[in-house]
Amino acid sequence: MHHILIVEDDPVDRETLAAYLRRDGHRVSEAEDGAAMRSVFSRGDVDVVMLDINLPNEDGLSLLRELRRQSEVGVMMVTGRQDVIDRIVALELGADDYVTKPYNMRELLPRAKNLARRVAAARANAPDEPKKSFDGWTLDIPHRTLTSPHGKDVRLTRAEFELLATFVASRGRVLTRDSLIDHVSGRDRDPLDRTIDVLVGRLRRKIEEDPANPRRIITVHGVGYVFAG
């Protein structure tokens, strides 16, 4: 059956949900915070993450953003936060589903199973998904490397890698500077912050034949950028 990771700091809620899922035949791992989540997730076989928002040290939305930078794992927010803004933010950050407490176990289980099936089907159809390609370039997400069409390793800083990974995963979509800085640093952007523009300039010098006339990372004036690679 599917491997489900529950990230919940309340031990009663976590253990109750875990026991219910195990009775249905699923393999369940438990984590009380972000550090424990990373430890389990690093093994690479999680199908669905059930993620609370209110967690110690790091909130669930920050952890969701981190998960989406490195994986297409199914993510279901299971939280007591019922504000519609929280729901919208979670879905915009890449959550697949949003369930508020108190929830009905008989409803939660099929939703989790359906999500796990979709993730399994996507993996089966894209066995090389961790490696993303564009114009002969290869971006290896797990190993955080970029290889040119000529087989040369191109050195990227952490921020450059995060930005390029975001572009490649969202090719053809216009991305605002605010959304890009969320992916790169997870902090709010000051109106005068030029971080993204500087990073884009550095990336262009590394992946464009003519950085002054880019054809991969295109500026959308007044909005942000679109990746056309």
How would you explain this protein's 3D organization?
With 229 residues, the protein is α/β, with parallel strands linked by helices. It folds into two domains: 3-125, 3-Layer(aba) Sandwich (Rossmann fold); 131-227, Winged helix-like DNA-binding domain superfamily/Winged helix DNA-binding domain (Arc Repressor Mutant, subunit A). It is 42% helix and 21% strand. It contains eight helices and twelve strands. The strands form three sheets. It has a five-stranded parallel β-sheet with strand order 2-1-3-4-5, sandwiched between helices. Strand 4 (74-79), helix 4 (84-92) and strand 5 (97-100) form a beta-alpha-beta unit. Helix 6 (158-169) crosses helix 7 (177-185) and helix 6 (158-169) crosses helix 8.
